[in-house]
Amino acid sequence: MASTGTTPHLIDQKEAEEIHHIDNYDDEKASAQEIHDAYVDIDHGYDQDFINRTTRKIDWRLIPPLIAMYCISSIDRKNVSLARAANKEAMHAELDLGSSRYNIITLLFFPPYIIFELPSQLGLRRFGPRYWLASAVFLWGLVTIGLGFSNNWVAMASMRALLGMFEACLFPGAAYLIACWYPRKQMARRSAVFYITAIAIGGLGNLLGYAISLMHGIAGLSGWRWIFIIEGILTVVIAIIGFVLIVDFPDRSTFLTPEEKEMIITRIDRDRGDSEADPMTKAKFISYMCEPKIWLFAVWFCVTTLGSYSMSYFLPRILRGMGFTDTMSQVLLAPPYVWAVVPALAHAYFADKYRNMRAWMILSGCLQSILGTILYSQLPEHLKAGRYAGTFLAVGAANGNVGLIISWAQCSIRNQSKRGYTSALIVAFGGIGGILASLLFMDKESKQGYPTGVWSVVGLNAFQSVTVIGLRFFFAWRNKLADRGKVVIEGDAKFRYQL
């Protein structure tokens, strides 16, 4: 805790004494509302320019490497659909793809992805983000290269399972790492920038995949094989760069000055009191498992990723069903993902700036997802532009809600062990969303526009809309009880839910 007025980044001695009073607030003498009001200003006592300068320093060291890693992750997990769209005949012939084997290949990524979420969080803390995350990216890069040399569909399905195991480390690890570095009022924007920038660039990967497929015949390899080989090599390169650039947790960081490090830890402690790591114990694990709100966030994430994975895996087929050629389908994949940046960042900005808007921003995404899905699937065939516009809404809404759900979940809890558990559980349910996408968007229904998958997305987003509103008002009710001193939220009298 900084407490001297002579330190350059602090304001005068009188205000420094005031913040010392806030940090040592007498909970027994003060009302719950007074404690809450005293606790709200996490920046008190620090010069705002110093805070902004340090935050930008963290942003540039933390976020870009994570974006690069998740960008190549989103490309590698969906390049099977790009390879199939680019050289369907060659791929089907060489791998003996028939009946539902393609669905099996896409599906087998997810069981290990789900199973290894929680163990991956334990490894992240023990070995540190640099070694843990970079090693995972490096290993799945090698697996991606191996996919290019698959000689039958069983080999490809097996390597897709390995890909899921290694990729399980990245997303929950990145979400956990971001939550450990920022106070709650800055989480949604960073989570959104991390995720949606990677997805938008990954959308341009569709064009890259198409360009690589033109190497068809070079060295006697089909174009679909070159997609895996080239993108796998790129993954290995990004892993090496990530090993150099990724930063550790705040309490173990080395790129900040002592004053900057102290300020970051102090703000996080004032915001939620969990800057220091606490070990995961059996009792904690069981208590976390019994919290309904965490499971609800996880179910929402499943619904959201059902929409995003269905677009990733089946949008090329959907576009062809609109009457576009194979080549145009590849080209038209990118714009909806670039557009997704707009709603994602706009929603995240309002969620952070007006911290009682988090639920309404998620609700907005749900409604846009419903509207977009209905437009692209139900409009008459001759309204091609309207149907294509629906894909923009569907892609933007589903991918935009990813960062919002993760950040609201992280804003609603305390303790680092709980953050690790929450990140892992939520992202694991994202894997379940991927399984549902593979099962509900059935190849046999492709000519009919995937009615089972489409109406599942619509119905589940309607369910999510209702439960988002319900949780929002439940949190508001709990906050009022805490203000009256009748309950303590998350084990801290100062903590309030953000709505």
Structure description:
- The protein contains 22 helices and no strands.
- It has 499 residues and is mainly α.
- The protein has a single domain (48-483), classed as MFS general substrate transporter like domains (Growth Hormone, Chain: A, Up-down Bundle), CATH 1.20.1250.
- The chain is globular, with a radius of gyration of 24 Å.
- Mean pLDDT is 85; it is low at 1-8 and 10-39.
- Pfam families: MFS_1.
Question: What is this structure, in a nutshell?
Answer:
The protein is mostly helical. It is 75% helix and 0% strand.
In whole angstroms, how far apart are the ends? Answer: 29 Å
Report the CATH topology name.
Answer: Growth Hormone, Chain: A
Considering the protein shown, what is the CATH homologous superfamily? MFS general substrate transporter like domains
- The global form is globular
The CATH architecture can be given as Up-down Bundle
Global mean pLDDT = 85
Number of helices: 22
| Secondary-structure element series | HHHHHHHHHHHHHHHHHHHHHH
Largest sheet data:
none
Low-confidence stretches: 1-8, 10-39
Give the amount of beta strand, in percent: under 5%
Main structural class: mainly alpha
Portion of residues within helices: over 70%
In CATH's first tier, which class applies?
A: Mainly Alpha
What is the number of strand segments?
0
How many structural domains can be distinguished in the coordinates? 1
Q: Measured on Cα atoms, how large is the radius of gyration?
A: 24 Å
GO cellular component, one term: membrane
Membrane topology: Multi-pass membrane protein
Domain Major facilitator superfamily (MFS) profile: 62-482
Subcellular location: Membrane
